[in-house]
Write a structure and sequence with these properties.
Elements (H helix, E strand, L loop, with lengths): L6 H9 L14 H4 L11 E10 L7 E14 L4 E14 L4 E16 L7 E16 L21 E17 L3 E10 L20 E11 L5 E12 L2 E13 L11 E13 L4 E14 L2 E10 L12 E10 L17
Antiparallel strand pairs: 1-2, 1-14, 2-3, 3-4, 4-5, 5-6, 6-7, 7-8, 8-9, 9-10, 10-11, 11-12, 12-13, 13-14
Length: 343
């Protein structure tokens, strides 16, 4: 039997566990980046959906789908609340259809500082996330010479592991219009084993350390705003830093702060570093977003800047996200929280 090109796919099967998936749209994946972001918004319920297609022209292309719902459970006094969420994502790559399916349940507690009438307010949030990671692969698609050993017999293609993470976020509002946030999260605290080889019990997911920050700076006319943000991720020998900003333009009639329609134009640069390998700029990310009342729709595209342009034929990754906020009218509503840069 003639060898078919599956080496790249097999490589991803063995080593994809070294680093988690990521989304380029920082503002559209809050609880994916930090469980303490659960419930940090002014309505009662938030629905988020993300789709990413990366390296469509390469053999080992990635397709990632994520969905989450989070909201406020109950108030704890006048200045605190407990929030709850559910998140799931699946990621498939390569000819062997190596797939990771992750189901997570974040729980967060928020504590607010500052009176309702105060122009300056602050919110401190802590979150913990529990869940499971499921791995599968279709090794029947491997093709090799007849005298080659049965590769599939050496690998486990169906594995479920427990995963736990935590995070903290501080958000502030100044003069009732400018706001910022900063957060830290740590994923895979139990370093779950994700070995694909049945002969090796030492492969595991490295802990991932994430720092995030951002702001919403209103201009004098209050018709425009800048939303700078950054994210720094470290996992094992891999490091990734993304920095950029949105320019926000309010359109249409003037409504309440949270209901104003707006257009966003943004650009981010992503830098990477691998221990003992190399470093440099990975991609330039262009993003467009539109907010209509409680609905936000965004599209972004990664323009590859690294040497991988040869492999992916200069075609990076397209990403689409949708956020919908639900304002539930109840007699006993959980406390409104600090206005934060919109996610």
């Amino acid at each position: 039997m003639k060898v078919k090109i599956t080496i790249l796919s097999f490589f991803f099967l063995c080593f994809i566990k070294a680093q988690d998936i990521h989304f380029s749209q920082i503002h559209a994946s809050p609880i994916f980046l930090n469980p303490a972001m659960t419930g940090v918004f002014n309505e009662e319920l938030r629905l988020i959906a993300n789709y990413r297609n990366q390296w469509a022209t390469a053999t080992a292309n990635f397709n990632t789908i994520s969905a989450s719902v989070d909201g406020k459970l109950f108030s704890m006094g006048k200045h605190a609340s407990m929030n709850f969420g559910v998140q799931a994502f699946t990621d498939a790559a390569g000819d062997l259809n190596y797939r990771q399916t992750n189901f997570q349940v974040p729980l967060a507690a928020n504590l607010q500082f500052g009176s309702v009438k105060s122009k300056n307010k602050h919110l401190l949030s802590f979150g913990i996330q529990n869940g499971f990671l499921h791995q599968t692969a279709d090794l029947s698609k491997i093709e090799a010479f007849d005298n080659e050993p049965l590769i599939g017999s050496l690998f486990s293609t169906n594995r479920i592991v427990y995963d736990v993470s935590f995070g903290a976020v501080w958000t502030s509002l100044f003069n009732n219009k400018h706001s910022f946030y900063i957060g830290y999260s740590q994923y895979h605290l139990n370093t779950p084993k994700v070995n694909t080889s049945s002969n090796n019990d030492n492969d595991f997911l490295h802990m991932k350390f994430i720092t995030i920050g951002g702001a919403e700076i209103m201009l004098k006319s209050e018709k425009y705003a800048f939303l700078p943000s950054y994210i720094n991720m470290i996992q094992g020998p891999h490091r990734e830093v993304t920095v950029g900003t949105f320019f926000k333009q309010y359109v249409g009639e003037r409504r309440r702060y949270e209901d104003r329609n707006a257009l966003y134009y943004g650009v981010w640069a992503r830098w990477y570093a691998n221990k003992n390998y190399n470093s440099g700029f990975d991609a330039l990310i262009a993003t467009f977003r539109y907010d209509h009342k409680k609905l936000s729709l965004a599209f972004s595209y990664d323009f590859t800047l690294s040497k991988l342009t040869v492999a992916n034929k200069a075609q990076g990754g397209a990403e689409l996200s949708l956020i919908y906020l639900v304002d539930i009218k109840t007699k006993k509503r959980p406390n409104k929280q600090v206005y934060c840069p919109k996610f």
